[in-house]
Amino acid sequence: MKTRAAVLHQIGLAGPYAGSKPLVVEELDLDGPGRDEVLVRIRAAGLCHSDLSVINGDRPRPVPIALGHEAAGEVLECGSGVRDLAPGDRVVMVFVPSCGGCVPCCEGRPALCEPAAAANTRGTLLCGECRLHLGGREVHHHLGVSAFSEYAVMSRRSLIQFDPSLSYEEAALFGCAVLTGVGAVVNTARVPAGATVVVVGLGGVGLNALLGGLLVGAREIIAVDLNDDKLKLARRLGATATFNAGDAEALASLREHTGGGVDYAFEMAGSVKAMDFAYRATRRGGMTITAGLSHPEHQWAVQHVSLVAEERTVKGSYIGSAVPLRDIPRYMALYRQGRLPVDKLMSDRMPLDEVNAGFDRLAAGGAIRQVLTL
Q1: Are 115 and 144 in contact (CB under 8 A)?
Q2: How far is Cα of residue 147 from the mean position of the Cα atoms in its chain?
Q3: What does the pLDDT look like over 45-55, one tens digit per residue?
Q4: Residue 284 maps to which CATH number?
Q5: What is the DSSP string of 105-164?
Q6: The total number of structural domains that make up the chain
Q7: Cis peptide leading into 16, omega within 30 of 0?
């Protein structure tokens, strides 16, 4: 069958993207689903920094590649071996499918699934193959999803069914931004009630981490960013204090405000400077968690002795250390109860043909979560 999709042919084109058009919306050939695969009609897809990182070269991937990884849609057809989904079911996509058989999966850490990591790096589905083609040439899949497309084929293990009481636009956010941001607080850090928290970087993931801090009952939730509009939004969402990272005294002021630093700091900007700020914002014995994805060549220097003498902890968090089959239904239930108001982070809706302009807004820091409606 045919599908219109946003395809990246060249990495690193300069912005503004509305002019350089790194993403070309074109008609592709899409194979039907193979064994343990599902054909999905994409209904909504979020624009995420992980997509932008491929466009600008921070996260190199093979090209051509159909981008998009945070999405929700409707099942149209199930391949052989798929017995627990049926046409008409609503599904949210997870950008790390779980094979269920590797060591991390068996340890209950599907976010670190080894076959999934290899497939995502190659730009294939979990089976190792591509289902997208352009003029007889393979088009790679972004993180096993390729959601900036009218239709997509993906592994059954990339899909979580959800209740139709949620709209597709709402559900799409749970596949990445919510799973990563809230999960970093709940799963990776396991922040206890009454703790003090700072979130550095207020994109979609960072603001979800802020909502996660509110959810678990942190007594102090501090927001840090370079954008004053995002700091204002953080205060409306419940941040107890905000600091602009562009202020030379921001770190000193934060440490004074907290009496020596916070218990937990979350770096969500994908920046070495942000990581350094987050680490220095923690108190003795504090924990710094990073979910930001910077360029592979970027390195962060840490004072070795502070790790020992101050018993600090540094942890990475990928996809919120999630067990998606467990976590997505839980987070959706909390959203329906009004305890996780992720809909307040949705900034714009747009058609597929405006995807490049959407990434201009994302790169400029002027948008939280933009959603393509397909």
Answers
A1: no
A2: 13
A3: 999 999 999 99
A4: 3.40.50.720
A5: HHTT-GGG-HHHHHHHHHT--TTS---EEETTEEEEESTTT--SBSEEEEEGGGEEE--T
A6: 2
A7: yes
Query: pLDDT (tens digit, 9 = 90+) per residue, 207-237?
Result: 999 999 999 999 999 999 999 999 999 999 9
Whether pTM > 0.85 for this model: the answer is: yes
- Whole-angstrom Cα Rg for the chain: 20
Query: Has residue 366 got a pLDDT over 90?
Result: no
What the block records as the tokens of 358 is 């959407």
Q: Is residue 67 part of a domain?
A: yes
Examine residue 325 and state whether it is found in any structural domain, yes or no. no
Whether residue 158 is found in the same domain as residue 248:
no
Whether 13 is in a domain gets the answer yes
Do 171 and 182 fall within a single domain?
Answer: no
Residue 246 CA to residue 225 CA, distance in Å, equals 8
Which residue range(s) make up the domain with 357? 2-175+341-373
Note whether residue 240 is domain-resident. yes
Query: What burial class does residue 279 get, using C-beta atoms within 10 Å of its C-beta: 0-12 exposed, 13-18 middle, 19+ buried?
Result: buried
Provide the mean pLDDT of the chain.
Answer: 96
Going by pLDDT thresholds of 50, 70 and 90, the confidence category of residue 281 is very high
Are 69 and 169 members of one domain?
Answer: yes
